[in-house]
Amino acid sequence: MKVQSLQILVEKLVEKGVLFETREIHSLRSGRELIVEVGETGPLTQTRKVTENSANYYLELIRQSKFSWMLFDASLVQIWYRVRKDRVVGHRFCYIPAPFEIDLRQSSGAAELVDIIEGGSSSNPLEQARRTILRFECDPAAQAPLHPAAHLHLNSNDCRIPMRSAITAREFIHFLLRFLYSTHFEAKLVEANFEGGSSLSDDEQQSFHLNWRIA
User: Fold this and answer.
1) Average of pLDDT values for 113-138?
2) Does residue 210 lie within any of the structural domains?
3) Which terminus of the chain has fewer Cβ atoms in its 10 Å neighbourhood, N or C?
4) Rounded percentage of the chain residues whose pLDDT exceeds 70
5) What is the DSSP string of 21-36?
């Protein structure tokens, strides 16, 4: 997805009220590849051990500003990908759901965002919904048994569900809106074709995997 197209989509999602806060889109040319990152999405600066998929992990992402977008329900999105000849050859697309329920569009604005989030996260912790982080990754150079080139992480770094191929930023956003925010889904807004060629190994094709095309 070209940077300009991504920026246009961001602006439309802001207008629709889906995105509450966004970060700057950065692009860097490295040899034949273009690396695109929205905001800063690298690893957390670890001052203490934080378990991924915990409320503390989510709060640290907020405190260290390690996210691309904050959605209207305070969930976070991270976007990083590499493109070669207009083809995605690597990516890390991550959805980090907020560990509490809130609609930031209805907040008074009197309190600081961090205070609102910290308060929401600590109130009634036993009643909070537990939603998993979804991390879509593609790293062909690391493909090996039990480490598919393209995969979806659920709950654990060791859980890698093979995916047919790399996906584009637009396809990732299409997935989020269609399946997690269906009331905001508009096919024309996030048109996607999911045409990536299969990178599945023979073994991966014979076992459970995510596929979206017959051929």
Assistant:
1) 75
2) no
3) C
4) 89
5) EE--EEEEEETTEEEE
Q: Can you tell me the distance from the alpha carbon of 135 to that of 78, in angstroms, rounded to the nearest whole number?
A: 9
- Would you give the distance in Å from CA 189 to the centre of its chain? 18
Domain that holds residue 154: 3-205
Distance of CA 198 to the CA centre of its chain: 21
In-domain check, residue 213: no
Burial 167-178 (b: 16+ CB within 10 A, else e): bbbbbbbbbbbe
User: What is the pLDDT at residue 82?
Assistant: 97
How far apart CA 207 and CA 92 sit, in angstroms, is 23
Helix (H, G, I), strand (E, B) or coil at 190: coil
For residue 143, the Cα-to-chain-centroid distance in whole angstroms is 21
For residues 96 and 64, is the Cβ–Cβ distance under 8 A?
no
Does any domain span residue 87?
A: yes
Is 214 contained in some domain? no
Domain total in the chain: 1
The helix, strand and coil proportions of the chain, stated in percent and rounded to the nearest 5, come to 30, 25, 45
